[in-house]
Amino acid sequence: MDDDVLMYFRFTISLPTVKLSICPPAKNPNINIQKYTTWTVKWLHSKIIIETPCNKAKAEITYFLFLNKFEIRSAIGAPTARPSHNIAVAIPDSIVLSSELPSNLGAHRVLSAKNVPKVIAPTTEVIQISLNFSTVNIEHTTICLKLSALVETSKTEWWQEGWSLPAEATPIKPNDAEKLINNSFADTVFFSNSGSEAVECGLKIARIYQNGKGNKTRHRILTFHGAFHGRTFLTCATNDKQKFSELLNPYIDWCDNIEPNIESVKKAISSGIGVILIEPIQGQGGIKVMNEVFMKELRRLCDENDILLFFDCVQCGAGRTGKLFAYEHIGVEPDICALAKGIGGGFPLGACLATEKAAKYMAVGMHGSTFGGNPLATSVGNAVLEELLSPGFLKNVEIRGKYLKNKLEDLASKFPIIEEVRGKGLMLGIKVKADNQKFAEELSHRGLLTVGVTSDNVVRILPPLIITEKEIDEGIEILTQYLSEKSSD
């Protein structure tokens, strides 16, 4: 290969296999690339290793999840290339939306999905106390078996939005909407495919409500520092802007983001606020539990000013805190609530719940979704709800959460590297005096999976809701050993 030749590698990724094809450079389309097409590709932790069978030449490619590219950083003995030659920029076909574990923790192969899942890390078997941002909350095997049965019974089912199949032609009969309404504040439910969609739906309900009442100047959305509500364009505008790329500017300019205190809210609501959107417990914001007095004052101010109160329970719902919804701990009910992640047990499902008052002006055609609320997705949601609402399940989550939090607080008293233990139920976090992402990665090498991708230098701990006391002890033992090593450095 000439020194000035830039080769382009295209990856088709359907894990665990990765197919590699090579495109000739534009400068020299007639170049012989046959000898490069026999390269094999395999995963190794957070990198991809490319090898040629002829001379074992290697090139390491760093996995850039958000940049939509792989960049070869080094190539040793690559065919006709100098060792320092930057061979290529590789462009993936499908990796950006991969459902793999975040790249900072590597790609881990599942060993067992029974009870708390065991996965193969780069060097060891690990205990997973992080469930992909609170998505698969209950026993993997149970959900897989139920999903398998649902798929089997729905092989002849065909779905199209707006068509109503007769009961005898529909073997799947989901009733999770009824379960959600019977166990929440809501009178209505709209099903979507994700949390972002559920939040978007709720914001549309709020806008339509204010316009329907003639309050056309009340179109602004109020959110709070540390907020994360999704990655669609509107939900990005409601997030804490400091956490997002400047490349998204200008954001939608009718979203205000303020400090979560009541004085700031009182000042803000005079500027045409129509809805207040808040997470009862911030996930991406650093596992921050909203103050109970503050939340009750929010409810009072909303009632006095005819502002809708919208709770985002995408991460802190579905039993994660020991209640079906996190707001139940504080005795404050919203007008609208978004739910997703854990409610689908790993299946794409979101739900927007609302009171009859909030949804008063919603009419046919004002909102819709091609696949939202399809029978298979809602049946999976129904299976999850059956598990969550089974006798004693949520109480057990509460008990395990207190046990784990007490253990973490004991460690915080012994190891100054832990500044604070936060959270409720099994939605916990530890604020550390270290790089939280590196902290989480080093724990994964020792056999404990957490998530370091969060604000305020917090490591998120989101174990399966079916975790046992014994498994908690195993995880705490690994964490204790790691903290001991860190403190002696």
TrEMBL record:
Molecular function terms from GO: identical protein binding; pyridoxal phosphate binding; transaminase activity
Transferase in keyword set: yes
NCBIfam families, A to Z: PRK01278.1
Family from the record: Belongs to the class-III pyridoxal-phosphate-dependent aminotransferase family.
Upper lineage: Eukaryota, Metazoa, Ecdysozoa, Arthropoda, Chelicerata
Name of the coding gene: argD
CC cofactor: pyridoxal 5'-phosphate
Name the record gives this protein: Acetylornithine aminotransferase
Origin species: Nephila pilipes
Keywords: Aminotransferase, Pyridoxal phosphate, Transferase
Highest taxon, organism lineage: Eukaryota
Gene3D superfamilies: Aspartate Aminotransferase, domain 1, Type I PLP-dependent aspartate aminotransferase-like (Major domain)
